Task: structure prediction
Amino acid sequence: MLITKTFLLENLCCENCAAAIEVSVAALPGVTAAKIDYEAKTVTITADCDADLIFPSIVSIVADIDEDVAVKEA
Result:
């Protein structure tokens, strides 16, 4: 069963960072799709596992790309 979940990306201010986050999150095991909405400052993932288990990996990816961005559950 596929699960879709959206996370807020507080302080996201760079489209290049957004693109890098989208590509990296999409490559995570279990993630079948990832889409950044730059205007809304969100990333929506579709996963074939519990999205909450992927959350720590998303936080790590975002911190590596832009340490000023905070990931929050929507």
Summary: The chain has a mean pLDDT of 95. The first strand starts at residue 3 and ends at 10. The chain is about 35% helix and 35% strand.
